[in-house]
Structures are given as C-alpha cells and as structure tokens.
Amino acid sequence: MPPATHPRIAIVADAHFHDLYADYGFPGIVQDGRRLTFRLLADTARSTRVFNESYFALHHTLADIAGRGIRHVVLLGDYSDDGQVETVRGVKRVLDDYAARFGMRFYATTGNHDIFGADGRHRAKRFLNADGSYSVLSSDPHLRDRGAHAVITSGDMYCKGYPDGLNDMADFGFFPQPGDLHWETPFGTKGDPAERIYEVRSPDGQTARRLMDASYLVEPSPGVWLLMIDANVFVPVDGVTPGEDGDFADSTSAGWNAMLVHKRFVLDWMADVAGRARLKGKCLLAFSHYPVLDPLDATVEDEVALLGLTGMAQRIPHDHVARALIDAGIDMHFSGHLHVNDTAQYRSGERFLTNIAMPSLVAFPGAYKVLDIGEETFRIETVGIEAMPLADDLRQAYRLEVLPSRLEAGGMLDAGDYGGFLFEHIGHLVGRRYLKREWPKEIAALIRSLDLADLAILALIAEPVAAGDAMAAIAAVRDDKGLQQRLVARLTKAETGALHGISALNFLADWYRLRMGSELALGWIGADKIAAYQAVAHLFADRGGDQPGAVQAQFALIFRMLTNYMTGLPSGNFSISRTNGAIEADRSAL
To answer: What is d(CA 355, CA 458) in angstroms, rounded to the nearest whole number?
Structure first.
C-alpha cells in the first residue's frame, strides 16, 4: 500500500499588511492616477518593520505560493498593520481574491496587532502629503499633533476588540466553513462567539472581564489537524474601570507565560485534542502567534546581563511553558511575533517539543515557509522573498518626503530589490534605534568609534579595562609590536586584513542580522566577514572569566551571543523526524 500523501502547507507570519490604495478618508498622494495612503519613511526608519512595502510583500508571497500549487495557507497572526478597520478589510480583499482565483484556503490566528481586548482601542498613523508634509489619521477625535499639516478623525483607523474584530476574517478559520472535515473550539463545535467565552481577572482579583477566545481546531484535509491557538492574553488592569482607556494590559509581552496563568483551559483542551489525534492517527500541528520556546539560541541570560531586561527578553517563554506543552502532548509548534527565523527544541526524556519561529514578511530576512508532511518526517523549506522588485510607486513617494525633510535613510533608497531594502533597513536601525534605546551609553559610544581591529586589540589587553577607559587603553597599545605579533599569530592573514575594513557599527548591524535571520543571514554577510567575526570571538572566548564590570567581559558576551546565533539548529531547509525529533539540514537545497 503506497504511503499516504498530504497537501503541502504554506505558513506566513507577521505580514503586517497596510493597504496602500485603500480609502481611509484621506486625500493622500496621487501617482499615475492612483491614490496612495503612504506611511512616512521616517517612521519606517525607526521601526522594527517596514510599512508601505507590506502591500507588495503579501501579494508577492501569495502569488509565489499559488505558483507552487499550494492551496492551504496558515497566517500566524499580525496579518494586519495594527488592526485598523480598513486595514483588516484590505486583508480580507486580498485573501478573498486568492481564494477565488486559486482555490486557496486560509487558516488564521490572531496576533497582538490584529485585535485588542473587549472593546478595542484607538490607532493613529502619520501619512504623507503631496508637498512632503504629513497628516495624522486617528480614530481618536481628541488627538493633537502640532507638527502635522492636519489631524483627521476616521473610524476606519480604530482597532476593534473581541469578537467584532474577527468579523472580516470570519471565512479564514475562526468560524466553521463548508469544506472543513472537522472543526471545534475549546468550548465545543459551535462557532457562535457567545459560546466561546472565558473569564479573566486583574492581578488584584478585583476586576473580572469576560472575553472570547478565538482558538480552533480544523481538519482541512484527511488526517491533518491544525490546532490554531489564540494566545493573545488581555488582563484587566488593577483599579481601571472597564470601558475606560487602559482597562486592559497589552498582550505584546504576555504570550505563553501568561497563557499558563490566565487561559489554562486552552492547555486542557490541547491535551484532549492531542490524545484524540493519537488515537485516530491524525497528524497534529500547533500554531500560535507567540513562541513556546526561546528562539534566540539560549542567549537571553547574556542579553539581560549585557543590556538589561529588553523588550525582546521580556517576550521569551520560560521553560515551564515547554514542559506544559510536552505534558499536553504537543510536539510541533509554529510561531511568529518576534520576526525571528529560528528552530528550537526542548527535550524531556524521550519526549520533545520543536518550535519553528517564523520570519516576518516585513523585516529582515523576509521569508515564509512550506511544510511537507511525510509519514516519517516533516520537511520544511524556507522561501525568501528578497528578489521582489521595489515598486516605482514607493520610490517616487519616498523622494517626495526625503527631499524637503533631508531625511537620512542610510542605504535603503539605494537598494536594488526588496531583500536589499530589508538588509539596509535593519542596519539603519542599529544607529537609529537600538544603540539609543537599549545599549549602555559607554558601550554604544565605543561601537560608534571603533573598528573590528580595535576590538581584537581589546581582547588581547590582559588587564581588565572599564568601558570609559577603553578608547585610551586601545590607543595606548595600538602600535605595540608585541601585541601586534600576538594578533598575527592568532589570526590568518585574510582575517587580519579584514579587521580594519569593518567598523564596530557595521559589525553590530551584522550581529542583529544574524540574531533575526540565523543561517538565512550568512549569505548576506559573506564568508570573509563571518570568518573575521569568528576569529575575534575566539580571542574573547580565550580570555576566561573577566570581572563583570570590565569592558572585555561585555564584549565577550556580545561575541558569545553572535556565535550562538550562527550555530543554532538548522532553520532554512531541514527535516524533523516525527518519531524522535531529530533535525537534519537539507543539504540538497544549498
């Protein structure tokens, strides 16, 4: 009897779709007879994602998926820019179009940008005017912005709450559809929102709210169960009257750590589903917006020691999340949210849990994944969208903004394609956002001033050096023949030559590219630079234990994290054994 075959599934995370051509009740700008509601490049330049390009990135991705003959597509949350009414309508228009033309089925789960609490919340965005100035569109009639040409109030900018925020996405998994072989929720087989209610309490226990949970299980094809988890957790804020602004805490940093506290009933349901899947011989795949394992290659402790409790560190799930999912019988989970491309695995005895962290369509490295379900293995292909051309509409509009504002956009506007744009965007963020917001001032100053050769010298200075004294210490020994001989003895000629051509700022840009892209970043950076980074990493690793306050200890953490980013589990094209969890890179795709 031939082995059973299952249709391939495409998985798309964090599309953050903004409809450039939608009607937000705002004149916008006109190009070639078409109106554009165009987000500012100045906002893109300091955001972790790009905005206007999202329109083309989603269309490009879905066209590529259709061209591969794939008809089942999972959307892992943050399908919309920020949950605005008109933006979600735009997502629906796109999905309806591909469903009609190619017979695609979409299975979505919610992200923190798509919906908010029970009643929703206001949104406001800056849009470009034809003269290069900007206007603000806001759902809040009380919003003011002195720098804006105009502040326009529009109900289409509002982000709805549960369940109203799901209305336009009703056909994409959240409610039963005629083609489903099986469909259920933690509450039964009815899709009615009134039947899918749970209670959540404020931390002090004084405020109780009733919310809809949008989790569901669907069988789109025989033998495959997609477990779509609504892992948004909105907790009432102590002392705030329900219905007032700020009555719910944002779900951004909550994720699965909060799921175990406030939505435990979902875990109980997942365990029941997993048990039935085993008995019936179903292939069970779990999906949610938030990761269930650390996707940063076990670097969180180093990050906290170096930078403090960053926003990224706050979003990392604790180990008890992994244990809870393993106890529930879940062994395969896909996540988005952090825009990180990564594979992580947790083992407990013979049991295992694998989390496939998905890159975003609107941040480096820009990709989606295709899952091929075999009888013994899962095969995963990561499909980059870097070759997508940059639309002329975007280039023309950016010139309208840049010329009068003299905006410094780094190399973004010189990029030849979308991949180059995202590559330059994350590099620009290092100086524009990360160093300013997250890095200690003295370390940031060194990174802005030194090159990789200076960091190699710092690694060879035997005495511990304080960050404030590092510039002088490096300058004092830069021409020391003995130190230079030691450096030459430790590095190859090519590595030594590369050090002087790489600024510490450019190194840190590649550090972030590896952090977000893992192996997908290697080809962008190049083998010579990677070798130089590894050589300096070895110099710091060989120092042993420096005093925590020494600048060498801080840079040792930076390079140790870099090494972990480069040497994690395969995250491009790879296979996972369904029986023992073994993960192997697919070398044939290289």
So the answer is: 38
